[in-house]
Design goal:
The complex is a heterodimer of chains A (about 450) and B (about 300).
Chain A: H1 5-23, E1 47-53, H2 57-73, E2 77-83, H3 86-99, E3 105-109, H4 110-117, H5 139-143, E4 146-147, E5 150-151, E6 154-159, E7 162-166, H6 167-172, H7 188-201, E8 207-210, H8 222-227, H9 245-259, H10 275-280, E9 284-289, H11 294-300, E10 305-308, E11 321-327, H12 334-344, H13 347-357, H14 364-369, H15 380-387, H16 392-397, H17 403-419, H18 424-439
Parallel strand pairs in A: 1-2, 1-3, 8-9
Antiparallel strand pairs in A: 3-11, 4-5, 6-11, 7-9, 7-10
Helix pairs in contact in A: 2-13, 9-17, 9-18, 17-18
Chain B: H1 2-44, E1 47-48, E2 56-57, H2 61-67, H3 70-101, H4 108-120, H5 123-134, H6 140-147, H7 159-186, H8 191-199, H9 204-215, H10 217-232, H11 236-241, H12 253-263, H13 267-292
Antiparallel strand pairs in B: 1-2
Classes of the chains: A alpha/beta (about 450), B mainly alpha (about 300).
């Protein structure tokens, strides 16, 4: 049969339409349960899962290896990894959840976890996890995957900020030693003295320090609050608790970074310049940074640098960074999803993943024994030690279902305090009012 | 006669059918990806919803919240100011560049390409280049200012300077498009008109003012509408370059709607901001269309 050009064009158009429409989607939806797809009692898990995540090259390689091992251990189980850029991750996950075709499993930061768990989007794992499962994790980690005392995910890894320093910059200011244990970490007063000393020795366009509280990283500002033994929410996760002596100390101390020129003015919470970039370019002598930065810093920087603990006030503390893995409520194969979540948090799996991707474990046994990063292993004890200072009462607050709104409140008010001249009292009052509005109706 | 008339009718019907057949893919896509989301956004704007599950109908609550929200008004003011600066500036620069490129300027092909090049780059990439230029610690521009002995500008922490940086990057991105449209308009003007003007004693400025400017009227009308709509919809450059800061000095309606919709997850409120933006754009376009439609007939 001879085809006319019109017939070919029409045919091509019709054929391409499904592809075009499919292209508007994002990832394969949650799989349909295959007949018999489940974990038999004592048997291997079978069926298919979709797993959506973002990640660095090292993280994605770690996930691929873990998936391979899971599939080998469970013949008949298939996990499809869907790696996406972080910038698109949650707008698309939200769209998929709203459309009713989410992936079976996805990765989520702890501060975003509550937004999904508190709104009935995640699988309640209570009946799928063996008894005593929670004992494997540190209390802080297990608290970070709870919603109303029910687990909706597994704490896959954490990360916390320590201080990375440019050795030459500190040497030239006469600071030749830094704390080497968590107990010896600089007090706030000592840290202030270090900042002043550096300010005196550095030219005007260089700065002693840069804080990593930009964007959603504003939750890292909470470390200063926790170091003063403060809290921003009461245990009901509804009542604001930031207007306190600890809150005043934290706002005053961090505001002073800007008024004393300890940090560049574009280091505020809404800046688009990352603190790590400020430090990389040697504009600052020190920076607060997570362990995930180590591989990049090692390969990029041509100056000598080291790591020390974050300063302490009433106590040491840290941000509970990192990510949980969660299964969606819509998954057709909850047993398999649960089996996968349990598999990737086993001791050997977590150890391998964290060591290769420069991240910190959430298991109590690994936290006690420590891990060796593949890159700069001598820095591992600093990060693991700092992570041990995170308390469950700190990480538990960040799981508020309204955290996304609270983050906006923190960003708005800290920006006003740091570069807008807003007083500490007004800042705390506005935060209290904002948090109260954010949690209203919870 | 009847048979001829019937045949003509059938032919006309077939032509109409073919016309609709050609239109239908576009209409389907337009309906699916523009009209349906538009109606949904209007419906959502009357609800309180975080996007999960059914929203709660709250009537005009979201709109009354807008009236008392200082960040919304600041974003509206910033959007209007941005539009008021960028629209005439990009059109004037575009027309100036087009007149130069339409003349006997040496290497004009190269200059045309350089001016049009930003059009080929995405807004996000353009803004990332802007970040490198306007970084107030290590940016190219401040280093240049220091090199020539001028004080550095706080492009990121100063509100006015940050706003200026957004305007400058947008102009860099958009002038090429304006130039291209004007260039097409200029090439449609008969050289005899300039010759006649010259014979009548018109100087260079008079030829530009009284021949060129009126005769590129249709291009100006088109660009005015497009620039205003683009300006009201500005998002990527602001989002990447300043994030709306410092202290909301560069927050515009779309970045504010995005923050509410996808960061705070207050999707009903975000939809209300979107609807306000739609109404403003529609009103402006309708006014311009009524006021300027005769200019479309020039030439």
């Amino acid at each position: 049969m001879e085809l006319t050009r019109r017939q070919i064009l029409i045919g091509a158009g019709v054929a391409s339409l499904p592809l075009l429409l499919a292209g508007c989607g994002f990832a394969p939806p949650a799989t349909q349960a295959p007949a018999g797809g489940s974990t038999g009692s004592g048997g291997a898990a079978t069926g298919t899962l979709t797993f959506t995540t973002w990640g660095t090259d090292a993280e994605l390689a770690g996930f691929r290896s873990a998936i391979d091992r899971f599939q080998q251990a469970n013949p008949g189980a298939t996990v499809t990894l869907n790696a996406v850029p972080y910038a698109q991750m949650f707008t698309n996950i939200d769209a998929q959840l709203q459309a009713g075709n989410p992936p079976d499993v996805f990765r989520v930061p702890y501060y975003t976890f509550g937004s999904y768990a508190g709104r009935g989007q995640l699988l309640d794992l209570s009946s799928y996890l063996p008894s005593g499962f929670s004992d494997a994790f540190t209390p802080a980690a297990w608290a970070a995957v709870q919603n109303s005392s029910t687990p909706y995910g597994v704490p896959h890894h954490t990360d916390t900020s320590v201080i990375l320093y440019n050795k030459a910059a500190l040497d030239s200011a006469g600071i030749t030693s830094v704390p080497t244990t968590l107990d010896d970490a600089w007090s706030w007063d000592e840290f202030q003295t270090v900042l002043q000393t550096l300010r005196g020795s550095l030219p005007a366009d260089k700065y002693p320090y840069a804080a990593n509280w930009q964007g959603n990283g504003v939750t890292r500002w909470l470390s200063w609050l926790f170091e003063s033994d403060g809290k921003f929410l009461e245990t009901d996760l509804v009542t604001p608790a930031i207007d306190s002596d600890a809150g005043r100390q934290a706002v005053d101390f961090t505001k002073n970074f800007f008024s004393s020129n300890f940090v560049p003015q574009n280091n505020s919470v809404k800046s688009t310049t990352l603190a790590s970039d400020i430090w990389y370019s040697q504009t600052s002598a020190m920076v607060s940074a997570g362990a995930f930065l180590i591989p990049d810093a090692t390969s990029t920087l041509d100056f000598e640098w080291g790591a020390t603990f974050s300063p302490r006030n009433v106590r040491s503390a840290g941000d509970f960074g990192g990510n949980a893995l969660v299964a969606t409520k819509a998954t057709a194969n909850p047993e398999l999803a649960s089996a996968f979540l349990q598999f990737v948090t086993q001791e050997e799996e977590m150890s391998q993943f964290c060591a290769s991707a420069s991240l910190l474990p959430t298991r109590a046994d690994l936290t006690a024994s420590g891990i060796d990063f593949a890159v700069r292993p001598e820095l591992s004890p600093v990060f693991v030690g700092q992570a041990s200072s995170v308390q469950a009462k700190d990480s538990g607050q960040v799981t508020s279902p309204n955290m996304s709104k609270i983050i906006t409140v923190l960003q708005d008010q800290l920006e006003q305090a740091f570069v807008g001249g807003q007083s500490t009292a007004d800042t705390l009052a506005a935060m209290t009012s904002g948090i109260s509005t954010a949690t209203a109706g919870s | 006669m009847t048979a001829v008339a019937g045949g003509r009718r059938r032919r006309l019907a077939r032509e109409s059918l073919a016309g609709y057949a050609f239109l239908s893919p576009n209409l389907v896509l337009l309906g699916l990806f523009v009209i349906v989301p538009l109606i949904s956004a209007v419906v959502i704007s009357f609800q309180r919803t975080d996007g999960f599950g059914a929203g709660t109908f709250t009537g005009l609550d979201n709109y009354s919240r807008l009236a008392t929200d200082p960040v919304f008004w600041q974003s509206t003011f910033n959007t209007a100011l941005f539009t008021a600066i960028v629209t005439p500036a990009s059109m004037l620069l575009g027309l100036g560049a087009a007149v130069l490129m339409n003349s006997v300027l040496p290497a004009r092909g190269l200059f045309r390409s350089i001016l049009i090049l930003p059009m080929a780059i995405s807004g996000v990439a353009t803004a990332l280049i802007g970040v490198l230029v306007f970084d107030q610690n290590n940016g190219v521009l401040d280093k240049l200012l220091k090199f020539v002995g001028l004080p550095p500008v706080e492009w990121q922490s100063g509100g006015a300077a940050a706003f200026a940086s957004v305007v400058i990057v947008t102009l860099w991105w958009r002038v090429g498009f304006n130039m291209l449209i004007y260039l097409a308009g200029l090439q449609g003007i008969s050289p005899e008109l300039y010759e006649a003007a010259r014979l009548d004693g018109a100087g260079g400025w008079q030829r530009f003012r009284f021949v060129t400017v009126p005769l590129v009227g249709p291009s100006s009308f088109f660009l005015l509408i497009m620039n205003v709509i683009y300006s009201f919809q500005v998002f990527d450059i602001v989002f990447v370059l300043t994030g709306g800061g410092p202290q909301n000095a560069t927050s515009v309606l779309v970045t504010y709607a995005y923050n509410n919709g996808f960061v705070t997850r207050d999707q009903g409120y975000a939809a209300a901001i979107g609807v306000v933006l739609l109404v403003i754009t529609l009103v402006f376009t309708a006014v311009q269309w009524r006021v300027s439609r005769t200019r479309d007939l020039v030439d």
